[in-house]
UniProtKB/TrEMBL annotation:
<feature type="transmembrane region" description="Helical">
    <location>
        <begin position="135"/>
        <end position="163"/>
    </location>
</feature>
<keyword id="KW-0633">Potassium transport</keyword>
<feature type="transmembrane region" description="Helical">
    <location>
        <begin position="334"/>
        <end position="356"/>
    </location>
</feature>
<feature type="transmembrane region" description="Helical">
    <location>
        <begin position="12"/>
        <end position="34"/>
    </location>
</feature>
<comment type="function">
    <text>Low-affinity potassium transport system. Interacts with Trk system potassium uptake protein TrkA.</text>
</comment>
<keyword id="KW-0406">Ion transport</keyword>
<keyword id="KW-1133">Transmembrane helix</keyword>
<keyword id="KW-0997">Cell inner membrane</keyword>
<protein>
    <recommendedName>
        <fullName>Trk system potassium uptake protein</fullName>
    </recommendedName>
</protein>
<comment type="similarity">
    <text>Belongs to the TrkH potassium transport family.</text>
</comment>
<keyword id="KW-0472">Membrane</keyword>
<keyword id="KW-0812">Transmembrane</keyword>
<feature type="transmembrane region" description="Helical">
    <location>
        <begin position="278"/>
        <end position="300"/>
    </location>
</feature>
<keyword id="KW-0630">Potassium</keyword>
<feature type="transmembrane region" description="Helical">
    <location>
        <begin position="71"/>
        <end position="92"/>
    </location>
</feature>
<feature type="transmembrane region" description="Helical">
    <location>
        <begin position="184"/>
        <end position="205"/>
    </location>
</feature>
<feature type="transmembrane region" description="Helical">
    <location>
        <begin position="458"/>
        <end position="483"/>
    </location>
</feature>
Amino acid sequence: MNHPMAVAQRLVGILLMLFSTTMLIPALVSLLYRDGEADTFFISFCVTLAAGIVTWLPVRAVRRELKLRDGFLVVVLFWMVLSLFGAIPLHLSSMPALSITDAVYESVSGLTTTGATVIIGLDGLPRGILIWRQLLQWLGGMGVIVLAVAVLPMLGVGGMQLYRAETPGPIKDSKLTPRIRETARALWMIYVGLTLLCALFFWLAGMTAFDAVSHAFTTVSTAGFSTHDASMGYFDSALIEGIAVVFMFIGAVNFALHFVAWRSASPMHYLRDPEFRGWALLALGVTIACTLALLAAGTYTQPGNALIKSAFQVMSIGTTTGFTTADFTLWPSFIPMMLILGSIVGGCGGSTTSGIKVARFMLLIKQGVREVNRQVHPSAEMPVKLGGRVIPDPVIQAVWGYFSIYMGVYAVVFMILMAIGMDEISAFSAVAACLNNLGPGLGEVASNMATVPDIGKWALSLAMLMGRLEILPLLVILTPAFWRR
């Protein structure tokens, strides 16, 4: 059997078996803290491993060169299947005792690094459940597929097509090292190194070892889950907020840039990258505007306090992380909306963030300016440039196509939420929070998504998956042309 579905089935089986091993980590944590949830994770491990074996066995002998079309199918199937199996411990656990809908929503939110939770009472949850939520986000941050690409070649499976289907942004068609396995390993070495460094700084700043590791998982991955209902505000520490700002910023930068800068031991590669410069200037400008607005409104009277609160919230929302240290929904009204709209832009391509990405945003602006100038000089040649390079028109068209599809998906999910009874502000921000993999919203979803009806949670779960996969891979496999031989 050499049908594309057989190839996808074999890979999903292998990846499920690999994923099952991650459930042993929270099982060990549960044993260490004696929270009573070790059996939950052991059962989940057995179920996931068995499902992987059953999926893999019938097609274990299938051998065919992996094509890009197969890559799209495997990536979409795996993220959907992964979300379902990631929900098993959350559903089986007596705390927080989630329904199937809520467990799947929480799992999708974790793996897509959204950070929008339906759980109330995080401070009292078993440590095993808490670390599982954080681990899901950490795995989703760089992309489980990229991790698998580093391992699959040893199992006789090529990985470049998976890498191209999974990895968004500028590094989609380029390899940092000659072999794709080495590329994936290089990215993960950087990712793991940054996580360990972040955990060390959090611990030195006063967090417990458990909280330091947990929050390092979700800071570097720009994800946003916390082990406390008050999020980062629980620690009430300007130093911890400052450390989080630095590592959220690092997580929002193209990891290809991190690799090149590390390999050459020169930070100049960052400054030469137009997307990095655009992202840094945007973050700085919004932070200054937010700080001045908070001081003018009297929300904070000390400039230093206003600056750290602004910088943290701007970086948290702008990188689609979603941590909070203050109830920013009570700030002057234009600030929360400005931050939510800013999450649509997100961070750099090839980073752990979501949103439409800074490079696309810059090209949209440049194309808009070009169209205005064309009204004055209709016959003039006006190439769009980014970083001194002329951007081909097909790329510009692809960006516009992506943006139009993004807005269409946004409108559809927004209308679904309105139809089930949510108010305009809550519905608008809930879609932004999920499609941009952000987390917090406004109105009734400012603190959590527990009040959203089940139909809305399924719609938002799909929006989170589309946001994580940058919409197109999911839509591609739904087209009749994809299934034609």
